[in-house]
Amino acid sequence: MPSGGAVAYDNMSPSVFILWLVTVPLLLHPALSNPLGYFINCGGINEVTVDSLKYIPDGSYIKVGTVATINKPDLLPTLSTLRYFTNTLSKKYCYSFPVIKGNKYLVKTVYYYGEFDGGKQPPVFDQIVEGTRWSIVNTTEDYAKGLSSYYEVVIEASHGKRLSVCLARNKHTGSSSPFISALEVKSLDNSLYNPTDFHKYALVTVSRHSFGSEDIISFPDDKFNRMWQPFNKDEIPVVASQTNVTSTDFWNLPPAKVFMSGITTSEEKTLKLEWPPVSLPSSYYYISLYFQDDRKSSPSSWRTFDVSINGHAFYSNLNATNKGVTVYAAQWPLSGQTQITVTPTGGIPYAPILNAGEVYQVLPLGGRTQTRDIIAMEDLAKSIQAPPRDWNGDPCLPKGNSWTGVTCSDQFVARITSLNLTNAGLIGTLPPNIGNLTALSHLLLAGNKFSGTIPDLSELQELETLHLENNNFEGPLHPSIKKLPKLHEISSDFQNNKVDGKATKHT
Question: How many CB atoms lie within 10 A of CB 190?
């Protein structure tokens, strides 16, 4: 049986779900300062404003891809351009943003196909955040309805001072090209979704609804630009509230506007709701439900009720005060269709009210690369004039999408075990901290145009194979190379280099 929820002034928990985003009206509000974070107009060359948020061109955050313009009327400005990726040899295509290590971020990706490639059906591909394969992007159904699509994930920046958001081909992509229309990376307050262990999990948005609203609630009512969708209420009664609710009283900072209306039913009747409105894969989910009594209640007239999910008690004898409350569970098992049931407590004549709800799927992280390895590889990339085009994001992860030439171990904290750039046509130098790749067994750089001196490699105690021939290295051969305990294969004379001193082959 699921573990019980708790009443608190807010919270959450976590893959592969699409939210529904309208594509039409140009929202003309006066421009306001963006919340802390990045709002990116992918493929654009100009700053554009949507719903009072300024989106800037993406050229400062990605080095690869081709831009395209969608010539269709009545599109949001962020949907009228996109960036797409044709290089089939690249393991992934990454945006990279300066962040604060340990902070939580809400990442949103937006897609509108617009037949940019002359086809009729959108391509299908993967998206990756911080080295974890986040979801498959399949916008076919939405695009057929004239809609764009968006995806969201809450994740901690754990890799260092940059956060990566990447696209990658999968077995369904074929010869088509992954693409992206807009991208948001927003820093979240510490209180948001804090029951989740973000060292192990991310949270993927499944649904977020303001049940009584007629329109989408987003920025500026929600400072993080989370979209609270209206709900298809059919014949479910809606009740309005005149009571002011303070958003900061809740951990998750829901916009106060979601408490201005809610759905209800007749007195002493049970409110039943099929929500979220999608069939869920078997997994654990973070569920947060928001309630508020529209009356100035007293102990003699409290609006109390029991909440259950799929027949399991979620919270009992809940008192929905006029200040508002949240009932949440950090990890609740769900599968298939979900029914929320709100039943008045015996003897209470007041009908139940439900204002809003959020559901996130708990996504186990795919691991991360050792920080010292990341720093060494980033420095190597900076030391090369034109590094491989997929050298961005996590060097090792996810598995199958490591950097070109990089092989890694399978641990949760991955280490780089081989670097093979033989005959890659690279021009550059080797940074001094290449020796920080202490798990490296094979360093194969032959047939390039590396120059400068060969740095101290004494820390590479696992190195078995070293090929540096046919480059432009010069200066004395560092004595550390001859002392490496496991080195058994090395180019004996560093041919076609200008290195003083010969190396011997270890046995």
Answer: 10
